[in-house]
Amino acid sequence: MRTTPLALALGLFASTLAVPGVAQERAIDPASIALVEQGKAALEAGNLDAADDAFEAALVADPANRAAFVAMGRVAIEQELYGQAVAMTRKALKLEPTDRDALAVQTEALVAMGAIERAKANRAKLAKLCPTGCAQLTASDERISLAAAAPATGERAN
């Protein structure tokens, strides 16, 4: 009976370590970070294959690198593979549900797919994360506004 309070205290302590946001975020492997930077340079140069390869290598080096998942989502959007972009950003959001970049890239893909209601749900999450505004919220607002205007002009917002 004397061990019951100790066991309860240890159980409570252990459960707080498993709660997202309570435990310290672990550092991303520097090699993975370097590969993401290499991929971003390739993406800016328009070399989508090299960018994708670098981002995949970054994930091999560190599977918890959210930036690599988000960047792979960006490459997928450039390749008009919107479902793949949503899948990549979903993986980033599984690691960190409040990742603003992942939400913004996913919103862009959802708008391109015509899933405006889901895009608006992401926009609402961004609004909660950025009460005073942020670049991701602004970009999402612009994408959703363009999509809303597209049926009136007959153009698709991409």
Automatic annotation (TrEMBL):
Residues annotated as signal peptide: 1-23
Keyword line: Signal, TPR repeat
PROSITE patterns according to UniProt: TPR
Superkingdom to which the source organism belongs: Bacteria
Keyword set includes Signal: yes
Mapped TPR repeat ranges: 32-65, 66-99
The name this protein goes by in its record: Tetratricopeptide repeat protein
